[in-house]
Every structure is written in C-alpha cells, then in structure tokens.
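Justification of computing resources. Each target in the renewal requires a structure prediction run like the one illustrated here; the chain below, 315 residues long, is used simply to show the kind of job we budget for.
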Amino acid sequence: MAGPRIGYLLPTREQIMQGRPAARPLLDLASRAEALGFDSIWIGDSLTARPRHDPLTLLAAVAARVPRVQIGTAVLLPALRNPVLLAHQAATIDQISEGRLILGVGIASDAPSIRAEFEAAGVPFEKRVGRMMEGLRLCRALWQGEPVDWEGRWTLRAATVAPVPHRPGGPLLWIGGHSPGSLARAGRFFDGWFPLAPDPQGFARGLAEVRTAAQAAERPPEAVAGAMYLTVALADSVAAGEAMLDGFLGHYYNRPGAEMLARQACYAAGPEAGLGECLAAYAAAGVSHFCLRFAGGHEAHQDAVARVRAGLGWR
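Resulting structure tokens:
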C-alpha cells in the first residue's frame, strides 16, 4: 500500500563535529538513500551556532547527484538571508532538480548561540518572524517572473530574477512550530507543517489546528501537508538506544540530552519493529512525509529503515 514518504537528513553537522568536512561522503550517503527507496534528502542550516555545510550549496550538488527524490532544507533560517538572493538561489536549485525542491523554514529558537549567529550575520534578532514572512512573500513574488515593485524592509523597482523555478509558483514552503501563531501561519501561508512533534496525539491536534486555519483563509485544508522531523537511534537494546540518543543530542546541541529529548520527537529502542510501530502511529495521526535524522551508524540505520518500510507494506 502507499504509505507516507520517508526522507533522510544528511549528517552535515555531525561530519563537521567529527573533523570530516569532505562533501563526497555526504553525496554518497544521499545516493545510497535514494537506491534504498528513500523519497527525499534533507539538509539542516546554521552559520555559527552549529557550524555545518551550507545547505543551499550542498543541495545543488545533491540535486545533480540524485535524480529521483525530493530535496529540502530541514530547516532553513530565511531571516538570515537577503530574500532576493534567496529567491535567486532557490530558483536555480529548483531548475537543477527539475522541481524537486522543498524549502523547510523556521524562525530559530531564542538561545544565546542563535542570537550571536544573527548578530554575526548583521541581522536583528527581534522581529525575525516578520522579517521571515515578508522575505518569503518577496521570494514568491520574484518567482512569478514578472517585474516586482516592493516597499518594505527591502526596496525593489521593477526587479526580476532569472531563472524562475522549474515548479510553477516556486518551491513548496513548509514550516514548523507549535505556538498558536505558528499553527495559524502554517495554515494561512504554507504548503506544509513540519514540526518536531512530541507525540502522535500532539501532532494530530496541531495538524487539525493548521488545517482549520487554512480553511479560515479560504484554502483547501488538505493543501497543507503534514510532515515531521524525527530523530532515530536503533541499537541492540532499549537501554543502548537511549544511551546513544542521549549522547548524540548532548553533543549535537551542547545541552543536556534529556532537555532536548523533551523538546523534539525521537525514537530510541532495540527492535526495528518498534520503529515501525512509531512511524505507523504518526502516519495514523496525519503524517504524510517523515524526515529522519539518525543518531549514528548511518548506513546501518538506512538499511534498517528500508526493512521497516517493507515490513509495513509501504511503497
């Protein structure tokens, strides 16, 4: 039976932390995921807070390397970027990928390292939501291919960018967040809701609110896809999986693993069948696309997910 799409997050942050900045191994992992039947390849974003490969540059290489799957950002911080430049870059990548690009976006959490990142980029941290939303509206205007006049944070006079995206109207835009404002924005403006849902019940409640907001904005509720970001740690036992996850989250964020575990969806257990039950529960709650981040052993985890998917009968 047709099931949710399953995507794979490239370990750009992890490779940098391990002192292995070469891009070729990342592209090899992307190719391997595609060959195993994964439906999408994702890349995270950060400048100085969590140094890693630039997502847009690397996505262009992924788009040329893997011809079948969707590609996306999980998630990009548009507020750090000039929207005219972002519109140009995204349109070019969408042409390279022939319409397979999804821009997952976020506003960034309020933490000292994130504030320092915004300062380093010369961007005010306050009012970053308004900056992101205006910037994305400007991107969409530029993606139409017609001259754009704009008065706001940026000023344009009959400006165009070329090429326009391969996909009419531009890449799909997905956004996460659980606050009432985030849910309302997702429903009114975005093509997908892309949270770190803590559990299937919370996801179902959030998606219902997003789609209610879409309907209130006179959009078809089903126009907003239900997607989610899930960290997976498979090991020989539940205890080993939990230890792997705790160590991974603590090292990745430089914060206590338990603190991060309380804020984002994770699966840590021994049996692969347990992961299948986890994915099936989220699918029943409305998830139509997963972005999976692995806490280690990427090739082994890729193989395991391929087996789990086959066991669920998803294709």
